Amino acid sequence: VQLEVSGGGSVQPGDTLRLSCKYSLSDVAFSVYCLAWFRQAPGKERELIVSMEDEGEIYYSSSVKGRAPISVNNAKNTLSLVLKSLGYGEAGTYYCALRGDRLCVTQAYNYWGQGTQVTVSS
Hints:
This protein has strands spanning 2-7, 9-11, 17-24, 34-40, 47-53, 58-60, 70-73, 78-83, 92-99, 111-112, 116-120. By secondary structure, it is mainly β.
C-alpha cells in the first residue's frame, strides 16, 4: 500500500485547506477498506478528523463536521479533503491513512502517508 499526500502549507485563518491523498492498493487484496484523514497539532495526540468506507459511509469528528467535505475519485485513486474556515488551533501535521476493513472510526490504521505540515497564520 502506498499513500502520497499533497497540499498543505501556510493558510490564513478563515481560509480553506485542500489536501489530496493518492493511494495504491496494487500489492494487497483488500476487498473492503477505510480511508481517513488525521491531524496532529503540536504537543497533542493524533486525532481522526474524517474517515470514509469503500462503500462511501463517512464519519466526521465534531471538530470538522459541517465544513469538511470529503470525496474519492475512484478513477484516480485519490482521496480529497476540503477543510473550510480553518482556525489557528488546526495547525499541525495532516496524515492520510488506510486500513483493510470497515472499522473506520479508530486510531489504529495500518498504513500511513508521509504527512503534510499546515500552518495557520495571517
